């Protein structure tokens, strides 16, 4: 088991597969399962899993055999040993399972190939099974196994009856001498339980003595001759049983080739139906395999997370996009998204279905990843050292056909240097031409991803109201750390927040922080479509902005309307999607002046006032109304 399997938890998927298997041979094969690099093999494996899943859904579970002790029995037979009655029964049960499985598969045959085609290679070996069934039962060789054995056992029964009758006569004649009223068997011989004080009154041989010493078990001289005859018959019986077992062993050996074929078919079907059961348990679907370079996951789920608690993942990588850089808050699901992409890719190349509504994967020569802090106490490696050691190895091994997954790129060291290293790593991956996904917190990396050809930003969604991550991946947008916003919601002093914002984002002249400030990313991706729709004009000064002007805010080009002119510090009131905020005039770009949008006497309260405030204003203009107020928003 390699480290990649452990990191992406592919080993746990194999453990689940092994639990669905019936036989030890199938479990060994599933434990060694690896993604295939051969396109034909990948497609063949996937087709088998898909057909097995269809059969499972339509016909229920197949009658597979655990093949208990079959390997030991086959080995003994090949060494010219004698099979025991129990081992022969195992073989008979296996052959019975083969017959049932062949019948099960025959019902499912839509053509002569595929999973159902395994049934054609199964030998029923009805005669061998019947021979064993007629000779062996309950771990014993039956009297019907041979005429000689039947005759010997009849003689033993007759002699035993004679001995019992003679002993019963002695019991009735001298009842006071015996501690019990019945005949006993000790060391394979018929005896009478004689009290110690009467042991000399019964002629015969002492076979055993009770633990207390109060009872002597004596074989009377009158039955010794009959007992010796029974012992001789027992030897003959044992010899005849061995003849029967050797004969049946020889029959098994004659069919050894067919039995091995049946075992191989049973193991193969056990493996493929384990994959089908895993698919059914996950509600999984077959992925589309391609020789190209596109990864697409629709409503995908991490297979080890509970379905009802897992937020589906929509993800696309390929075409002109070689790499995706995911940003967002801690515990927001970035690492889970990263692992889901890698794990589902490995599962698809292993012929397994993936838990998703649909998926498409290219064939990758390897999946390389650096996920987790990797800190090592024994090797004295820091988190950063461990990451860099892994990344150096990944870069040396990655090819154009690799999928590379990097978590918390550049973390664990000085932010400025870590950011530089992160960009250098991404640039090298771009140069190699492989597909890659990386997560990071660095805003400079988001800026780099927005500008670099072949890269795309993505973020994990965050609920501003509950302060909780939504675990939903949104591609095409850079993520926000949300630290300032969260701090404000939790009561962090406003004055300190202003200082923090200026330190973090380069001298913002904010009089009062708003939600808009926290969620503007000055280094985000290229301007949005809104900014490209029409030519833009820059105002000369803050005082030039008028109520009703259509403006765009920041590099992202969020569209807003001016509802209040600039104050002494150049802060302009802008309404964006119904939310009013104060924004520095330097971050605004005029899109369309109000004079081109509205008539000179336009009532802007229609745009910026609530219905309740507008009604109150009109009423105040007509007459004085006690208690009537207008709610003014605080910014």
UniProtKB/TrEMBL annotation:
Q: Which PROSITE patterns match?
A: DNA_MISMATCH_REPAIR_2
Ranges for domain DNA mismatch repair proteins mutS family come to 402-418
Keywords associated with the record:
ATP-binding, DNA-binding, Hydrolase, Nuclease, Nucleotide-binding, RNA-binding, rRNA-binding
UniProt-listed SMART domains: MUTSac, MUTSd
Among the GO biological process terms of this entry, one is: mismatch repair
Pfam families to which the protein is assigned, alphabetical: MutS_V (PF00488)
Q: Which InterPro entries match?
A: DNA_mismatch_repair_MutS_C, DNA_mismatch_repair_MutS_core, DNA_mismatch_repair_MutS_sf, MutS, MutS2, P-loop_NTPase
GO terms, molecular function: ATP binding; ATP hydrolysis activity; ATP-dependent DNA damage sensor activity; endonuclease activity; mismatched DNA binding; rRNA binding
Transmembrane segment boundaries: none
Q: What is this protein called?
A: DNA mismatch repair protein MutS
Species: Lawsonibacter faecis
């Amino acid at each position: 088991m390699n480290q990649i399997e452990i990191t992406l938890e592919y080993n746990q998927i194999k453990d689940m597969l092994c639990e669905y298997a019936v036989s030890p041979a199938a479990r060994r094969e599933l434990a060694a399962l690896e993604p295939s690099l051969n396109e034909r093999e990948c497609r063949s494996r996937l087709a088998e899993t898909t057909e097995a899943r269809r059969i499972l859904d339509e016909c229920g579970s197949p009658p597979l055999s655990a093949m208990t002790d079959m390997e030991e029995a086959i080995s003994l037979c090949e060494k010219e040993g004698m099979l025991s009655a129990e081992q022969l029964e195992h073989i008979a049960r296996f052959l019975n399972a083969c017959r049932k499985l062949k019948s099960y598969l025959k019902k499912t045959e839509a053509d002569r190939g595929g999973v159902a085609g395994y049934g054609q290679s199964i030998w029923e070996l009805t005669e061998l099974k019947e021979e064993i069934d007629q000779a062996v039962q309950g771990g014993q060789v039956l009297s019907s196994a041979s005429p000689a054995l039947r005759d010997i056992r009849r003689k033993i029964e007759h002699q035993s009856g004679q001995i019992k009758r003679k002993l019963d006569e002695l019991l009735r004649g001298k009842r006071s001498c015996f501690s019990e009223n019945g005949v006993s068997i000790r060391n394979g011989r018929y005896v009478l339980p004689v009290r110690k004080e009467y042991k000399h009154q019964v002629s015969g041989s002492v076979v055993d003595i009770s633990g207390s010493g109060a009872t002597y078990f004596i074989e009377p001289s009158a039955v010794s001759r009959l007992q010796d005859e029974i012992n001789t018959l027992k030897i003959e019986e044992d010899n005849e049983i061995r003849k029967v077992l050797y004969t049946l062993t020889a029959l098994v050996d004659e069919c050894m080739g067919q039995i091995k074929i049946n075992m191989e078919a049973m193991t193969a079907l056990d493996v493929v139906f384990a994959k089908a059961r895993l698919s059914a348990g996950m509600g999984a679907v077959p992925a589309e395999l391609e020789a190209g370079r596109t990864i697409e996951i629709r409503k995908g789920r991490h297979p080890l997370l509970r379905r009802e608690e897992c937020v589906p993942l929509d993800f696309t990588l390929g075409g002109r996009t070689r790499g995706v850089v995911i940003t967002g808050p801690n515990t927001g699901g970035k690492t889970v998204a990263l692992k889901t992409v890698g794990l589902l890719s490995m599962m698809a190349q292993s012929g397994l279905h993936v838990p998703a509504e649909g998926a498409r994967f290219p064939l990758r020569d390897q999946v390389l990843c650096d996920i987790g802090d990797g800190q090592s106490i024994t090797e004295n490696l820091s988190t950063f050292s461990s990451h860099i050691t892994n990344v150096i190895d990944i870069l040396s091994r990655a090819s154009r056909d690799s999928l590379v997954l990097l978590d918390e790129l550049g973390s664990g060291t000085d932010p400025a240097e870590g950011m530089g290293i992160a960009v250098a790593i991404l640039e090298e991956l771009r140069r190699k031409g492989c597909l890659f996904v990386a997560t990071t917190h660095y805003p400079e990396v988001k800026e780099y991803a927005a500008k670099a050809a072949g890269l795309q930003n993505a973020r994990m969604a965050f609920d501003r109201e509950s302060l909780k991550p939504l675990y939903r991946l949104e591609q095409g947008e850079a993520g926000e750390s949300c630290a300032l916003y969260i701090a404000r919601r939790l009561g962090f002093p406003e004055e300190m927040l202003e200082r923090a914002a200026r330190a973090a984002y380069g001298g913002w002249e904010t009089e009062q922080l708003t939600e808009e400030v926290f969620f503007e990313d000055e280094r985000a991706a290229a301007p949005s479509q809104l900014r490209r729709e029409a030519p833009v004009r820059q105002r000369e000064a803050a005082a030039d902005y008028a109520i009703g002007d259509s403006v765009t805010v920041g590099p992202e080009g969020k569209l807003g309307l001016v509802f209040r002119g600039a104050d002494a510090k150049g802060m302009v009131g802008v309404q964006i999607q119904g939310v009013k905020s104060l924004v520095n005039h330097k971050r605004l770009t005029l899109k369309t002046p109000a004079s081109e949008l509205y008539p000179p006497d336009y009532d802007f309260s229609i745009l910026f006032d609530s219905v309740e405030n507008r009604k109150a204003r009109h009423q105040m203009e007509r007459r004085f109304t006690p208690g009537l107020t207008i709610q003014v928003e605080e910014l």
